[in-house]
User: Fold these one by one.
Assistant:
Number 1:
Amino acid sequence: MATSIVGVAIIMSCEHCETDHDESVHLERHNDRKPIVLSVVAGTLLLIGLVLKFILDMEIFSLAVFLASAGVAGHQIVIDGLRSILHRRLSISFLMTVAAVGAFFVGQGEEGAAVLFLFSIAGVLEERAIEGTKKSLQALVKLAPETAFVRRGGKEVELTIREVKVGDKVIVRPGGRIPVDGAVSVGMSTVDQSSVTGESMPVTKQKGDTVFAGTINHDGVLEIDVTKGSDETVISKIVKMVKEAKEKKSVTEKFVERFSTYYTPLVLVGAVSVAIVPPLFFGLPFSDWVYRALVLLVISCPCALAISTPITMISGITGATRQGVLVKGGIYIEELSKVKAIAFDKTGTLTIGKPKVMDVLPSHNPVTTAKLLSIASSLESMSHHPLAKAIVEHSELERVKPRDVTNFQEMMGKGVKGTIAGEDYYVGSPGMFQELGLRVNKEHIEDLERAGKTILLVGNEDEVLGTIGIKDKVRDEARESILHLRQHGLKTIMLTGDNSTVAREAAKELGIEEYHAGLLPEEKVKIVDELKEKYGGVVMIGDGINDAPALAHATVGVAMGAAGSDVALETCDVALMRDEPMKIPYLIDLSIKTMRRMKENIIAAILVKSTFAIFAIPGLTPLWLAVAVGDMGLTLAVILNAMRVSNLKTEILHHR
C-alpha cells in the first residue's frame, strides 16, 4: 500500500521494558522537541563535568555538574522506573535508575550521568526510528474521508460516513477521495487504487465497475451506488486484519518471548551474585564488584532480543502490503519461508477466469445452434460458475434470449439440470452424461479437448443434443511466476475440475510439473492433505470462494483477486488484492528474506548481550559502553535492520 501498514509496529514495544505512559502521552512526546533539548543540555553538562574532573582536577564541582546532568537527562527516567515498580513491573527505566544511582554510590559520578544521558539519547533515536510506522497506521485509518456528498431528495447533502447507508448515491468530484465501497452508476473516470490493491497505475472506472473506499478519483465526476456500510469496506477490513495480525505469532516469535521471560531474572540473579559473593567470601573490593554488577544489570534488559522478532515480522507484513498482498499474521510469513510445494487452482488463478465460448456444435438435425444456446443459457443463467457466465455472455452476443426454468438443480463439479417448457434438460461434463446412461461421442470430445478446450454437453433425458467448447486464456504472468517458483526449488502442482486432456495442455503451456484433473471441491481437499503429508507444508492458491475448503486445509491458503471478495478476505491466510501471479514468487522471496533478517537480529542480540556479560565480570566493560552499545544501541540497530524488510525491493518485481 502507498500508505503502508508499518504502523502496526506501534504494538511492538518490548513488554519487559514498557513504562506506564498511555498512548496519547507517548504520541505527544514524539511531536515534542523537549526530550532533544534536555538531552543536549545534559550532554553539555556531562562534557563540562568531564573537563572539571579529568583536566582541572575539581572533583567536588564536577560531582555537582554530573548530578545536574543526570537530573536533566534522567528525571523522567527515574519517574518512569519508580512508577513501573509500583505497578509490579520491572522496566528498563528502573534498571537504568538503579545503575545510575549505584554508579554515583561507588564514586563513578561520570558513569552515572553518562548512563542516563546515553539512555535518553538512544531513547529519542529509537522513538524517531519507529515514529514513521505509527504515523503510517494512522494515515491508513484516515484513508477514507470522514464525510461524503450524498444525493437525497433531489439535493446534494454532506453527511458523515456513518450516516451514509447502503443504497445511497454518493457524488465524488475530480481529485476527491472515494468515501465508500460501491458501484459506479453514472460517469467515467480514472481511479488511483494503490491504497487498496497496490496498483501503480490508475484504473478506468465506468458504469457498473466496483470502486473502493480510500481510493482517489482523478479526472471525472462519479456517482456511486453504496454497496457496503462504513465498517464493512475493504479498507476497514484491511485495517482490522492488520491490527489482529500481531496475535498470530510465528513459532520463532513465541520462542523468543518465552526465552526473554527467563533471561532477565537469570541475569539479575547473576548481577546480585557478582555484587555480593566476591566481597563477602573472597574479601575483594566491594565498590569494584558493585560496579561490575551494575553493568550486568544494564545488560539484563532483553529489549533488543524481545523486539527483534515482532518488529521484523511486522516489517515483512508491511512490505507485502505495499505490494497489494495482505498477510494475516507472522505465522504465515514463517510457514511461507519453509514450504516445499505450491498448489494452484487453474480457473481464475492461472487463467484469467473469463472463459470464452469457442464452439457451439449441434449433434444432429433438427437441433440448431440457436436452440442449443437457448437451452444452455437458460439453465446456466441460474449458476454462478465461470463457465456458466461464458455461455450466458455468448448467448447475449448472439441475441439468444434465455427461457424460464423450473426445478433448477446444480450438481457440484458436474453440471446443472432444470425444466424448460415441461421438458427436463441437462448441461454439464461428459462424465455426467455417461452417468445418466446417454451415448457420448468420445472421439469428437477428445479432438476438442486436445485443442485445450473445456467441453460441456447439452441434452435431455434421451440424448445428447450438442457440444459447447469453451477455452480460458492463461494469464500473461502465470508462466513466468511458475518459472520463478521452480528456481526457488519449489514443486508446482495444478488442481482443476477440468478433464485430464485440458489439464495436461494447460500444465504444458505453464511449465507445471504435476497436475490433478477432474477434481470435485472435496477431492481438492484430499489432494492438499496428501501433498502436506508428502512435502510437510503446502501453499494452496485459489479464488477464495470455490476453493475455500482447499485453502483452509493448506498450510497457507492464498486467495487471488481478494479486493472484490468478502469471502476471500475472510477465509484465506494471505490475500492478493489483485489477480497477479507474479506476487506469489515475490511473497515467497519476501518471507525468506524476512526470516533471514529475524535470525540476524536474534543472533546479534544474543551475541552482543552475552559478550558484554562475559566481559563485565572481569571488569572489562565500562557502564557507559554497556548502555550505549549493549542495550539501547543494540535495540536501535535491531529496529533499523528490521525496517529494511519493509522497503525490500525484490528482483522478481523489478524483472517485470
Number 2:
Amino acid sequence: MLKRKVKLYKRFKEISVELSKLGIYNVYEYFKALFGVETEEDIRPQKIRESLEKLGPSFIKLGQILSIRPDIIPQSVIRELIKLQDRVKPIPFEEIRDFIEREYQKSLEDVFAEIDPQPIGSASISQVYRGRLKSGEQVAIKVKRPYLEELINTDAELFTKIVSFIEKHSKFVKDLDLKSVIQQYRQTTLREADFEIEANNITTFRENFKDFSEKFYIPKHYPEFSTKNILILEYVEGFKINSSEDIKRYNLNGKELAELITDAYYKMVFKDGFYHADPHPGNFIITREGKVCLVDFGMVGTLSKEKKKLLYEHIFAVINKNTELAMNFYEGMGMITPKTDIDKLQIYVEFFVDKYYNKTLANINLKDMVLEIIDLVRECSLKLPTSLAYLGKASIGLDGVIRVLDETFNPTERLTKFLTKTFKDQLKDLIEDSSNIFNFYYHLPLRLDKLIKTLEIERLTFRVIFKDFEEIKQFYKKQTDRIVFAILSAGFIISSGLFYTGKKEDLADISLTIGFIFLTVLIYRFVRDL
C-alpha cells in the first residue's frame, strides 16, 4: 500500500513539474479548465492541448478520449484535442531490444535478419522500426512501449483521485460523472494496446478492401511473428500524405487522392459499418505510383445496420426538411437522457434542419455540420454513443487530411454515390423489414402471455379486464397474417415497378405475379373472416 502511494506521489510530482514549465502552477485548475469549469483566463484550449502532448502517453490518450465527449467538454477545447499529435519521445533501442527478446524468448538475430535501431515512428502506445525477416521480406516492427499497462493503471488511479478532490469542491464536476470517463480511457487504451485485436482489425479491413487494393491498400500482417505485444507488418515504401514536395515530384493529383481517400472512408462507414477512427496525415502513406496505404488500426469504430439506416435517414431528413424524421435519429441512437429538454431539442433540430434545407451535398461542409451536432449534444444534455462519437472524430480528421491534399475539395459532395441504394438493396431491405414485422406480430401473443405470468409472479395487480386471453391471441394471429400478406404483396408490386424502371422486364413480371398472388390470398382470407 505504501509503495503504491509513493508511486502515485512521484507521478503527481512529475505532472506538476511539467505543468509548471508550461506556466500552469495548479493541477486542479488545469483539470477544471479541461472540463470547462470556470478557471484562470490564461489557461486556453491551445495550452491545454500542448500540455497533454508534453505530459506523455497517458495524457495524450486521455485527450483523445475526451475529444469524443462533447457532452462534458466545451467545443473550444474539443477543437484543440482533435489536433493532438500522438508523438512522444522514443525509448532507447536497448530497452526495446530487451523487451523484444523477452517476448520471443530468443535473441533478436534469431528472428530478424536486420533491424534499424532508429524508430520510424514513436507514439503513446508503441514504437515502430524498419526491419527484414530471415526470408528477406521488408517489415515494419511495431513494439508496445514496455510497462505500458502499469503506467495506464497508475495514471487512471491518479486521475480518479484528482477528480474525487475536484468533486468535493464542485457540484458541477460531480454531476459530470468523470470517473466513468476515466474508466473508459483505461479500457479503451488497454484495448488499443492489445496487438492481437489490431491484427484482427487488419484482417477485416483487408477483406473489405480486397477489390480495391490496386488503389487503396491495407498492409498485411505476419501472424507467425506477431504477439500481443509485437505486431509485424508489411513495410510499404512511400511518403507521408502531407509531403506536398513528393506529390509534385511524382506528378500525383491532389484532388484525385482526396477523392480516393474520401470514397474509401464512405465505403467503410456506409457500406461496411467498420471504419478507421483515427484518420490523420501520419496514418496515410502514398506510394510513388499514387496508391494510398492506410496504417495503424488500433482505434476503429463500428456501426450496426440499424445505426447506418438512422444515419441515412438523418441526412435525408436534413436535406428534405423533415424535422420528425430528424428527431427519430436522436431517439434511435439512444441519445435522449433523463436530463434532456425535449422541447429545447426540438427547437435546435428545427433550426438545424432549416439551415441545411434545400442545400445540395456539395454545398454542405461535413466538418461544420459535425461541430454543430457537437454543440447540440452539449446544449440539450444528450448522451453521445461511442460509435457516433468516433464517427464525428473521424469526420473531422478526414476533413483535415483532405485539406492537406486540396484546400478547395469538399468531401461531402462524394457522399451521394454512397447514399443511393441499388434495386437489389431496396428489395433486400423491404424483405428484411417485412420479416421483422412478421416476427414481432407472430410472437406478440406469446410475449403478452409471458408478461402477464411475470406480473402474476411479482404479485402486481392491474385493473385490466380480459374477456378471453385465447381470443386475443387468435385475434393477433389473424392480424399478423393480414399484415404480412399485405406487406409482401405491396413489396413485390413496388419491386416490379423498380425492375421495370431498371429495364429488367423478366424480374418485373415475376415480381408482379407474386405480388398479385399474395394480394389474392389476402382478399380471400379477409372475406372468409367476415
Number 3:
Amino acid sequence: MTCNKTIAALRLNNKDRGILDFLLLKISEMKKNLDKLKELRLLIRSHYSVIYVDTPEEERTHGLIRLLADNLRIPFFCWSRTKGLVREDIDSKGPVYGSQDLKTALSHIEASKFQALYHFGGIGDYLEDKLMVSMVKDAASRFSRNYGAIIITGQNVEIPETLRTITAVFKMPEPDAEEYRELLGHVVRDLYSRISVDVKLSEDDTNKLLNNIKGLTLTEAEKVITKIIIEDGTLSSEDIGKVIEAKKDIVERDGVLEYYPVEESMADIADLKGLKSWLSKRKEIIVNPEKAKEFGLTFPKGVLLLGVPGCGKSLCAKAVATEWGLPLLKLDPSNIYNKYIGETEKNFKRAMNTAEKMSPVILWIDEIEKAFSSAGGDSADGGVSRRIFGTFLSWLQDRKGDVFIVATANDVTKLPPEFLRKGRFDEIFFVDLPDREARTAIFGIHLEKRGKNPCDFEIDNLVDATEVFSGSEIEQVIVAGLYTAFSAEKKLDTQILLDEIDSTSPISRTMAEKITALREWAQERTVCAN
C-alpha cells in the first residue's frame, strides 16, 4: 500500500487509528532491530571488549543498545559528561559519585565484578589522550572472559592502535526507504488526529519527497515533516523545496561544503547536446529510484567535464541540480586543506560523509586539478595531497550514498593518470568552443537576460565575429558593451558590441597551443559534449 493510500485509509477513527499506528510502527522498528541485535549480540558473545558503533544517531543507537542489554539480561549503564555513569535498566538512585570525570567512570567499571553494557557517547576527543586509552583498555579487559562491553558511539572516531585488537566496528545502518515511508505516514496520521491536514501529494510527489528526506536521521526527518505540515496545514509538492532547505542548514552547520544556490536550467545552456541527452536518459532514475532498481539500474556515479575555459562546464553543474531537482553541494579545496597535521584528512572525510548524508545530491568539484595536482609526485605538502587523492579514489569506488559527482577541469595534464581510469566516472566529456548555432543561442540568452531584444541586433554579424570565442567571453562582450553604452548615454547596438569584440583577445588565441593539445588529447579519450 502506498503512503498516500495508507494516509487516506486511516483518516477514520483517528484516535483508535493513532494508537494502532503507533503500535504498528513500534512493531516494525522491532523487526528491523532484530538483525542489528543479532550482529551486536554475536560481537558480545565473541568477547569483543570494546564495540565502536559508527553513527550520527545517538538517540536511535542508545535505544538499540538498551534493547540489547535487555535481550542479554545484563545491566545497562550510560555515561555523559553532565550526568556521569547512570544505570538505566532499573530505577536508578543517581549517577556513580564523581563519574562525570571519565577517569572515575572507567575506574568504576574496572572495579565492578558483574557483567554489563556501558554506553559512552562523544568521547572521541578523549581517545587522543594515551593515558585515557590505557584506562579504557584496562576497564574493558575483564569483558574478554565474560559478557559485557564498553560501547563507544559517534562519527569518524579514530580508534587508537592499542585498542584495535579488542575493538569491533559496527556501522549503524541508515534508515531505508521503507522506514522513511512509514515515518511519513505516521507523522501525517498523528497530526491528522489533532489538526486539519490536507495532503496534496501524487505518488510521484511522494517519491520525490521521500527521496529528498533520505540522508536525514529519523529524528531530523520527523521534525522537518512535522514543521512543514504545521506551518500551513498542508503537505504538497511545494514542501519538497522546504525539505531541501532543511538539508541546507545541515551543510552550513558543518562548514566544509558549500550549499550552492540553484538558479540555472538546461534552457540557459546553449549547445552541449551530447551531454544534455546523456543526462536526460538518467533523469528517470532520480525521479523513480525504486522502479529503476527493479529494472537493474543503480544511481549514476558522475561525470568529468574537461574542456576550454569559459564554455559552460561550471554552469552545467548548476543546471544538472535544477533539472534533476536535487540539492547542489560545492567542494572547495581551500575549505579542506588545513595547516595542522591530520586536519585536512579529517575535513575531507567529513565532507564526504556530509555528501552521503545529504544524498541523493549533486556534488560539484570545480577545477578539480587544483585539489589533486600534486598527488602524482613529490610535493611540498608532506604527502597530504597524495593521501587525500587516494582517499577520494577509494570513496569514488565504494561510496554508499547516492552522490552524483560533477567534476570540472581545465588542465587535464595536471590530473594523476589513475583519476581518468574507466569506472571512476560514468563518462568523461569534452566541452569545446561553441559552434555557430550555439553562439547564436548564447547571444540570445544573454541579451534577453539583460532586457534586450535580440531582434534589435545583427546577430549574424556578431556570430561571425566571435568564431573562436567561448560562451563566457561572449557574455562579457555584452556586459562590456552595456558599460560603454551607459557611460556614453547611448543605446546598446550592434556596432558597440563589434567594437568590444575587436578589443577582446579570446583565450583560444592567447593559449592556442594548450587548447590544441587539449583537443588532441580528448579526441580519442572522451565523448563530445557539444
